[in-house]
Amino acid sequence: MPPTLADVAERAGVSRQTVSNAINNPDLLRPQTLERVQAAIQELGYRPNRAARHLRTRASHLIGLRLPPAQEFTANAAMDRFVHALVEASREAGYHLLLFSGGPGKPETTAEDLVRGYDDLLRSTAVDAFIVTDTYLGNPQTRWLSERHAPFVAFGRPWEDPDETHPWVDVDGAAGVELATQHLLDRGHERIAWIGWAETSFIGQDRRAGWERAMAAAGRPTDGLAVRVADTVDAGREAADVLLDSVRPSAIVCASDTQAVGVLHSLAARGLHPGRDVAVVGFDDSQVAQVVPGGLTSVRQPLEQVAIELVRALEALLAREPYDARGVLLVPTLAVRGSSG
Amino acid sequence: MPPTLADVAERAGVSRQTVSNAINNPDLLRPQTLERVQAAIQELGYRPNRAARHLRTRASHLIGLRLPPAQEFTANAAMDRFVHALVEASREAGYHLLLFSGGPGKPETTAEDLVRGYDDLLRSTAVDAFIVTDTYLGNPQTRWLSERHAPFVAFGRPWEDPDETHPWVDVDGAAGVELATQHLLDRGHERIAWIGWAETSFIGQDRRAGWERAMAAAGRPTDGLAVRVADTVDAGREAADVLLDSVRPSAIVCASDTQAVGVLHSLAARGLHPGRDVAVVGFDDSQVAQVVPGGLTSVRQPLEQVAIELVRALEALLAREPYDARGVLLVPTLAVRGSSG
DNA sequence: GTGAAAGCGCTAACAT
DNA sequence: ATGTTAGCGCTTTCAC
């Protein structure tokens, strides 16, 4: 049974309140007393009981994070790195991460299932705030949380609803793809194709805009060079097949590593060599991009920085500090590997 | 501000304790009263305050999990799938996962750093128990927790110390590799090489034993066919180079997908075709194995089942139920892809 | 079957 | 600068 405030107080020869002050308002104590109390804390290995502190202060020092199901048969592995970065950033701010999942195990059925995890934690005052990760099209999480005045910050811009007033942190996908496209232009490529997602995807449109921007700046036409397909390996492969059989690009930029891997499949089937015959660039710097034979050049999101900014925003939010920067946009980098030369 | 027991009691026209009973001991109430209370709970959207309940019952319904740093430039991605499986399994048992990290950010320096996260959570009674994931050589976590009588279950056998009495769940790596080797034997391979880890790794030795077992059962010699190297892509590539230049195996089984990808590198550099010229099998069924062009045959750990068993053991432990099965050993499966024919 | 009283460990407000 | 009092929301005796 861990020691309590009373145990420390007795040992130090002071009252419980003085021990509490020694922890939360050390400047209130006379140095001599403070030292004595700290010695007692040290000797007993005392740590404040979190439940009691939580009950009293109404702060759990817990941040809720919904963990979306791990996607297999894709190269979308950003979550792993992100969660770890978040654990680190939270720890430095004195917070822990509380994980929960969406609906009843299987695929996210209704919007209610998706929101149930948030609702439970909110009503039971289990967490101080949430970090929301999927802000893409049709996701009701942010609006639902806003309506309920639940404290949260989002990884991802409020694409659908620019009037949303919650703090957010995002990565500038357009800038990342522009970087990738410029990299290919610099290497002498002229016909650079784009494989992206459906038009309804804001993130997909954003990333595509980077390609368009770089191509326009270089005075290169883009007609027939863009395809919109699903975010799967097979879709990427099929899209590459179509492009290679028609417009014959010398380089292909993709909205994701998953699609880029599909392109690698297509090249392999044709006996073409990535980087030598056709350059390929992906997005997310997944483990797959890092270790696939030859290496896949990819846009890397600064997830560690994203985590730090998210926690910073959260601290400001919970402290009700004026947080002027409503949104923070971070710039990705490019990890250059064999697939681009 | 969420409603409290008192609010529900007032609305239902009963006392607070009756509401508490309605939640925790429904059979104590007369059906009519119970119904009225439940209606009030429903109408108010009442959820017990977790901090208060925790303080009173000394049960946080939180499970602590240390998240080891995500390894980049490897194919070791089992953690992602495992954490998600654990969140699901915990949820069904009424628990949430609390994430923490090891030392002060950077590489795990001392053993004390590693243990500090556990210590903090334990002393502050933040979690009811831990799930420990790295039980490999030289890891002090389990012994430290045992000494402190901290409730925990381990994913991984107590290799070093078979006298350890904590519950554990593990995957039979030897059986998995045996499965893989048998699969290759069935396809007509005779010279099947092994690329594994250092002799000091219990897990590595276990997996290797599966290869030895299958080879012995088939009456195949193994001389010169085994290599011990680090768990990196480069080490796997170099080991494959050595093997292909010497004993010329027709198939290579690896202790990890990371090493197996290294083998793929070696084959690619030699213009050899995985599966046609040389068969390759990895371990972990990582995203890399799943999407790499051609596909990498790999041993797949039943992580969802592992998570379920871990939580089951934890429940028994916390309920002080007699949990006779000290350890549970689960059998992996083989995901067959192009690299093995 | 239901209600009254006590207390988990802590901190905020006040008194000294 | 330190001690006293009260109460956060819940469950656990123990009366009735």
TrEMBL record, chains A, B:
CDD domains assigned: HTH_LacI (cd01392), PBP1_AglR_RafR-like (cd06292)
Pfam families per UniProt: LacI (PF00356), Peripla_BP_3 (PF13377)
GO molecular function, one term: DNA-binding transcription factor activity
Keyword Transcription regulation: yes
Keywords: DNA-binding, Transcription, Transcription regulation
Protein name according to UniProt: LacI family transcriptional regulator
Residue intervals of the HTH lacI-type domain: 3-57
Ranges in coiled-coil conformation: none
PROSITE patterns: HTH_LACI_1, HTH_LACI_2
Organism: Nocardioides silvaticus
